[in-house]
Amino acid sequence: MSTQGVLGHLESQPRRRQEVPPQQSGLEKIRATVHALVIQRDQLKAKKEANKTVQKLGSDDPDQSTRGGEGPGEGEEGSDGSLYSQLLQLTARHAQLTDRLHAHQLIGGYDIIKTRQGKGVCVSMATSYEGVYLERYSLEMSVAPVVRIVRHDVPTFVPLARLAEKDGALQHHLKGFLEELSRHLDGYAGRRQQLRLLKEQHGSVEVMEGNVPCSLLVLCLTVPRTPPLEDIAVLCKLDYSDRTRCLPEEVTVQSEDEELPETSQWKDICTLLKETPLHKAVATLIQRGDIK
């Protein structure tokens, strides 16, 4: 079954409740990653080699194999026939890569390989944040008799079953299902990366509380005050209720100084934290002297 045929089969299957099985094996995850890189490399290489061969064909003299006393056997290897044969092979390879690219585009740019002797497919999705590629997640799906998820390594807190069942997305709107799932994975990867960068770059900020999806964070910020007043601690709670996003929907602060959260300064700080990635917002607050 060709990749296009598999995709067509995916889109035409009837509705059935999705079953969530054990995690995908590490070997197939590695294969999915390697496959994505090979496609990109081979496509560029095939185009480059084809262009070089065409240029060589245009510059070669058809009679060069008979010059300089070469015999028929010696001239055959460097003949135009051999070069044309190479060009045909490159053209065939290029056509194969074009077919793969088409399949790649059909499912929204995700990497896909056939599994189970053509009876299933493995879709691989890479997450990224600020141009840096992070974790990669994969789904293996059976295509017969209905589309169902066989194995995956998607985090358990991502509502995979709900996304698959919503409006029959897995059976009838595969591309939309993958796009929504990708948004959840990118949101999680982005939040986790921001938290990682915060800990690496700003050790003075203590993370008091956080959950696995990084959708709720409580930070302890130290606010400097002019002596003889002592510095004061402020608890800052960031709530990422929309788990497809990297920015919090709500930011609240608590302090021993009950008037502090109501000041215009801290209202502006809450706005900054809602509109700016966490590690960058903290860097700004430290630079301005709002916190230590």
Count of separate structural domains: 2
Widest β-sheet, arrangement of strands: 1-2-3-4
As a whole number of angstroms, the C-alpha radius of gyration is: 28 Å
- End-to-end separation in angstroms reads 61 Å
Helix content: 40-55%
Q: What are the secondary-structure elements, in order, as H or E?
A: HHHHEEEEHHHEEEEHH
The total count of helices amounts to 9
How large a portion of the residues is in β-strands, by DSSP E?
Answer: 15-25%
**Which runs of at least 5 residues are low in confidence (pLDDT < 50)?**
1-7, 14-24, 61-77
Average per-residue pLDDT, rounded, comes to 78
Would you count the extended β strands for me? 8
SS-based structural class?
alpha+beta
Instruction: Characterize the largest beta sheet: strand count, sense, and whether it forms a barrel.
Output: 4 strands, antiparallel
What characteristic shape results from the CA principal axes? elongated
List the helices and strands and how they pair.
Elements: H1 3-12, H2 26-59, H3 72-77, H4 80-106, E1 111-115, E2 120-129, E3 132-142, E4 148-152, H5 160-165, H6 169-172, H7 174-201, E5 206-210, E6 216-223, E7 232-239, E8 250-255, H8 264-275, H9 278-288
Antiparallel strand pairs: 1-2, 2-3, 3-4, 5-6, 6-7, 7-8
Helix pairs in contact: 2-4, 7-9, 8-9
Tell me briefly what this model is:
The chain is an alpha+beta fold and 292 residues long.
